[in-house]
Amino acid sequence: MCTTIMVLSTIALLLRQMFVNRVKPQLKQKEHI
Predict the structure, then answer these.
(1) Cα diameter, the chain
(2) Which InterPro entries match (predicted)?
């Protein structure tokens, strides 16, 4: 169980980083406009 939770948490963090990196550029463009 512990190993599965660790894997899920790491995957969640990676997905969160990808989502943030994808959203940040859009927010920056909106700020410039």
Answers:
(1) 48
(2) PRCD
Place of tokens 């959203």: 23
Instruction: With residue 30 as reference, give the H or E element that holds it.
Output: helix 2-32
What span, in angstroms and rounded, lies between the C-alpha atoms of 17 and 22? 8
For 1-33, write each residue's pLDDT tens digit: 789 999 999 999 999 999 888 877 777 777 665
Q: What is the DSSP letter of 1?
A: -
Q: How far apart are CA 23 and CA 5, in angstroms?
A: 27
Dist. CA 26–CA 32, nearest whole Å: 10
